[in-house]
Amino acid sequence: MLVVLIIAILFILYFSSWSSHTRHASSKHREQIIGADGEREAFDTLLELKEPGRILTNLYLPTQNGSTTEVDLIWICKRGIFVLEVKHFSGWIFGNERNQHWTQVLKGGRKNRFYNPIWQNKAHIAALRSLLYPTFMGKYFNVVVFSDHCTLKDVSYHSDRTMVVQQEELADYLCMMVDSLPSIISEQRIDAIASLLMQYKDTPQQVHHDHIQSINQRYKGY
Questions:
Q1: What average pLDDT is seen over the chain?
Q2: For residue 161, how many C-alpha atoms fall within 13 Å in the half-sphere facing its CB?
Q3: Residue 78: which pLDDT band, with cuts at 50, 70 and 90?
Q4: Which residues contact 14 (CB under 8 A, 6 or more apart)?
Q5: pTM for the whole thing?
Q6: pLDDT at 39 over 50
Q7: What's the confidence (pLDDT) of residue 36?
Q8: Which of 4-8, 49-53, 83-87, 153-157 is the least confident region?
Q9: Of 27, 46, 78, 171, whose Cβ has the fewest other Cβ atoms within 10 Å?
Q10: What is residue 20's predicted lDDT score, i.e. its pLDDT?
Q11: Distance (Å, rounded) from C-alpha 77 to C-alpha 138?
Q12: Residue 217 has pLDDT above 90, yes or no
């Protein structure tokens, strides 16, 4: 009888652990899918623009401290280089460019803090600027795109060539900006920049693993 009881307890503990692991894995997989959907929507918006250019996705760029930074989307056109950071969030969003953390408020009042996406994208631009110098010394644009499933309740920023928009506004904002800017990059230079960056597209698994570890350490406790 005692043996049966011990086996039953071990079975319950194993099943509980397996269920917890499965739920966690499913949750992480869902987050990846949701994030990919958000980037796909932004990518499709860029494809629909009449302005010719090159679109690059998910690049792992080296940084000065020896780690890597992942860039969601880069649009290289005659007006400059637009760097997009996509946030597929729901709920209310509160944030100020001067603050290190922004806040997401979900239904029921639950709050989540997340790293300032403008700062996050500035790091992407810094990596690009360092990598492309002196090939490109023109203008970079910091574009943060939030999902239409959220509400930008109180978001403020002041820097030039910076915009925080929702997906449904992205095309209008980009068209307005492009129409107001002169052409500074030739088609040949666009192709040269894209070719240079494409080598950071197919990232080895170890680089991806190291990148995730770096993020976990950097934002530990947020």
A1: 84
A2: 16
A3: very high
A4: none
A5: 0.78
A6: yes
A7: 76
A8: 4-8
A9: 27
A10: 38
A11: 11
A12: no
- What token pair was written down for 35? 């994030």
- Hey, what are 142's tokens? 């910091």
* Residue 101 C-beta-side C-alpha neighbours within 13 Å: 9
Over range 206-214, report the average pLDDT. Answer: 50
Q: How far is CA 191 from CA 54, 77, 196, 198, in A?
A: 7, 10, 9, 10
Residue 49 has pLDDT above 70, yes or no: yes
In the chain, % of residues over pLDDT 90: 70
Give 73's strand partners.
Answer: 57, 84
Three-state SS string over 38-68 comes to HHHHHHHHHHHCCCCEEEEEEEEEECCCCCE
The number of residues making up the chain comes to 222
Q: What is the third-level CATH fold of 55-175?
A: Trna Endonuclease; Chain: A, domain 1 (3.40.1350)
- On the question of a cis peptide bond just before residue 52, with omega within 30 degrees of 0, the verdict is no
